[in-house]
Amino acid sequence: MRHELIGLMSASALASTLMAAGCGGGDDAADPGGAGGSGSSGFTTLSGTTSLSALTPAQATQLCNDTYAHFGTAITDATMCKWKGLAFATSSSAPSPEQYRANCVEKETSCLADPAAARSNNPGCSSFPGGCTATVAEYSTCVNDQIAFFNQTVAGIAACAEFSSTSSDAVWAALGAMPPASCTFSNCTGLYPPNPLF
Predict the structure, then answer these.
(1) How is the chain split into domains, by residue range?
(2) Cα end-to-end span (Å), the chain
(3) At what angle do helices 77-91 and 97-113 cross, to 10 degrees?
(4) I want to staple 70 with a disulfide (CB 3.0 to 4.6 A). Which of 43, 90, 115, 191 is the partner?
(5) b/e per residue, 29-62, with b = 16+ CB within 10 A?
(6) Residues near 84 by Cβ (< 8 Å), separated by ≥ 6?
(7) How far apart are CA 29 and CA 55, in angstroms?
(8) Cα–Cα distance between 85 and 144 in angstroms, integer?
(9) Taking the mean position of all CA atoms in its chain, how far away is CA 51?
(10) How many alpha carbons lie under 13 Å from residue 76 in its C-beta half-sphere?
């Protein structure tokens, strides 16, 4: 399970672990009913007070696309590529610490050589559960808190050139960590916004 999960991350970071549904396609339709409303998150023009289950398919797609675009601006290339290196090294089953470090550096370096390509994949978002009363603003708060956790976590792990078993343990700990409190949606069971860790 862990190797499979890391493989997904190293192949295309920022992927949701759930089935894509109604999100991530080419339709970037504007919000037809209330752009920039109360409670706006700052990264989407959708009204923050709108419940997720009330979004049209075009609005759900917009929120998904806006979320992945926000990952691209709120997470630096250096941070994203460091994570790719760390995740790859953790899953590589290298025979020695030196090889773990080499694997990490190689993946990070190739990512930094073309970060736009490394960010090019928007795998889509999970569908919103029926009757979900969580709002766009609550969803956006969760996304922002996940980004903050991601940035802080990656900054706290040693650089690829210093990769060790402690680094690997930190990667597993991040993957197994509880989501931020804002991502526990009591008013929308089964809601899983995209997470930059995966």
Answers:
(1) 43-183
(2) 13
(3) 140
(4) 43
(5) eebeebeebeebbebbbbbbebbbeebeebbbbb
(6) 9, 10, 13, 107, 108, 111, 118
(7) 12
(8) 23
(9) 22
(10) 7
Contacts for 14 with CB less than 8 Å, ≥ 6 apart? 68, 71, 80, 119, 121, 123, 194, 196, 198
Contacts (Cβ under 8 Å, ≥6 apart) of 165: 97
145 bridge partner residues: none
Distance in angstroms (rounded) separating the CA atoms of residues 115 and 112: 5
The closest of 171, 150, 1 to 78, measured between CA atoms, is 150
pLDDT tens track, the chain, 198 positions: 333 333 333 333 333 333 333 333 333 333 333 333 344 458 999 999 999 999 999 999 999 999 999 999 999 999 999 999 999 999 988 888 899 999 999 999 999 999 988 887 788 898 999 899 999 999 999 999 999 999 999 999 999 999 988 999 999 999 999 999 999 999 998 999 999 998
Distance of CA 20 to the CA centre of its chain: 14
